[in-house]
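Input record, target 12 of the design panel.
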């Protein structure tokens, strides 16, 4: 069994995270419950930052908060001295409410509304990562009307797509995000940005994919950007002071996943940039990255209580848990794989193979198809590992199932950071027909 971060099996044969017995967490807070190993988040953030320090370049590590956002997570990110990438007014609102330094916030998204752009201007955030011409015009107009300024990056589609071990160079990328590199859209966007009296173009952003285990895709993305730098300098007089290469650094979900340590991704990126800047005779720009999954993914574990079981002789043994696609959409959406263990009998031999079903009214609501476990009993607590990224953040109320609670654990203590949704919460926004007013 692979244990992440501070997770271990204690003398009582139970799974412990951050020095806290998870079966006690299940009793105290109920299930399903997201448990975050804060020490592991700290370690990852340090790993990325230290790697940049070792390379001796100016940098920003921005937490891609779409992976998991709540007030406490933004507070923790601030404490860890990382910047924040937000992709909506909701994430921006939460980050600001958590007291994040607005100057450290970067705003992403392919369809930011006028209201969202206005929020960014009002809060005077660090930069807007402009995705398209419409947004460029909108932001310029808003800033002009209010005599405000805004730093921007331009998001480009570098024509590199990377996923785990494979990457493909697509040349022209068919993506909803960013300015297309090959068709000269980027040059046009650079020209417009530089002509703006209100926008300050800091640099270029690219993001090549998710759950990446190799550095080749990043190297190719850097090379693609540098292929065009000469032209941008010659034609537009533009030399970037920031290059942001996005996120996508992989984590180990299951056996066979072989991510690199944060330092390996960072040093390869930085070294490639250094070599190419030297070749082109320009200064090394600030290098920014945006890890999401690799900061919080394997720090998160979901605790479920096992309820019903169903044995189909010679076919399959199902066990059902008290959550499912309502708190983890990833298996249904991406066929994502997970490992898990019985939290209350963690070192017992795994003699059986179970298929773990959620409780939603949908056959596709399966969390794991083949999970080796001991013979389970009702009320056992199942811990599913690596649910920290895109688990709670994609949780939903399908079947009107309340969203779980979230706790942080560290040094033998637990702290509730998101309350469990109640049935009252579920009807909070509903307007009953009996309240209808006569028109
Ligand atoms: N930066 C940009 C511009 C992004 O689009 C993303 C992720 C990230 C950073 C962070 O990527 P990470 O380091 O977390 O891989 N829901 C999917 C993942 C969607 C990722 C979208 N963009 C999943 O559950 O796997």
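The sequence produced for target 12 reads:
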């Amino acid at each position: 069994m692979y244990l992440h971060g501070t997770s271990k099996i204690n003398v009582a044969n139970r799974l412990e995270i951050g020095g806290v017995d998870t079966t006690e967490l299940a009793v105290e807070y109920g299930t399903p419950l997201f448990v975050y190993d804060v020490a592991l988040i700290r370690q990852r953030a340090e790993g990325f930052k230290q790697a940049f320090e070792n390379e001796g370049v100016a940098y920003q590590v921005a937490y891609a908060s779409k992976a998991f956002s709540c007030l406490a997570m933004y507070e923790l990110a601030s404490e860890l001295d990382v910047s924040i990438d937000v992709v909506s007014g909701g994430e921006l609102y939460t980050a600001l409410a958590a007291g994040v330094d607005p100057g450290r916030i970067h705003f992403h998204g392919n369809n930011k509304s006028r209201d969202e752009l206005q929020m960014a201007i009002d809060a005077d955030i660090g930069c807007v990562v402009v995705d398209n011409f419409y947004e460029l015009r909108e932001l310029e107009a808003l800033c002009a009307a209010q005599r405000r300024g805004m730093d921007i990056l331009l998001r480009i589609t570098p024509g590199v797509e990377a996923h785990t071990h494979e990457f493909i160079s697509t040349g022209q990328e068919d993506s909803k995000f960013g300015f297309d590199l090959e068709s000269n859209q980027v040059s046009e966007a650079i020209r417009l940005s530089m002509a703006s009296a209100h926008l300050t173009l800091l640099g270029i952003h690219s993001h090549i994919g998710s759950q990446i285990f190799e550095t080749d895709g990043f190297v190719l993305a850097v090379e693609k950007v540098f292929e065009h730098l000469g032209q941008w300098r010659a034609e537009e007089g533009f030399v970037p002071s920031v290059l942001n290469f996005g996120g996508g650094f992989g984590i180990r979900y299951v056996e066979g996943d072989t991510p690199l340590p944060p330092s390996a991704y960072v040093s390869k990126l930085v070294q490639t940039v250094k070599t190419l800047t030297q070749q082109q005779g320009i200064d090394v720009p600030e290098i920014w990255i945006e890890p999401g999954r690799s900061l919080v993914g394997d720090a998160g574990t979901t605790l479920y209580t096992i309820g019903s079981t169903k044995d189909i002789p010679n076919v399959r043994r199902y066990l059902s848990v008290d959550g499912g696609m309502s708190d983890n959409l990833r298996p249904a959406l991406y066929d994502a794989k997970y490992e898990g263990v019985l939290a209350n009998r963690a070192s017992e031999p795994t003699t059986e193979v179970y298929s773990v079903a959620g409780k939603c009214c949908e056959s596709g609501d399966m969390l794991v198809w083949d999970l080796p476990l001991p013979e389970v009993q009702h009320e056992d607590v199942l811990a599913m590992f690596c649910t920290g990224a895109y688990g709670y953040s994609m949780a939903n109320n399908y079947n009107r199932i309340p969203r779980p609670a979230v706790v942080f654990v560290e040094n033998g203590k637990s702290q509730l950071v998101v309350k469990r949704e109640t049935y009252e919460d579920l009807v909070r926004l509903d307007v009953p027909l009996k309240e209808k007013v006569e028109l």
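The chain has a mean pLDDT of 96.
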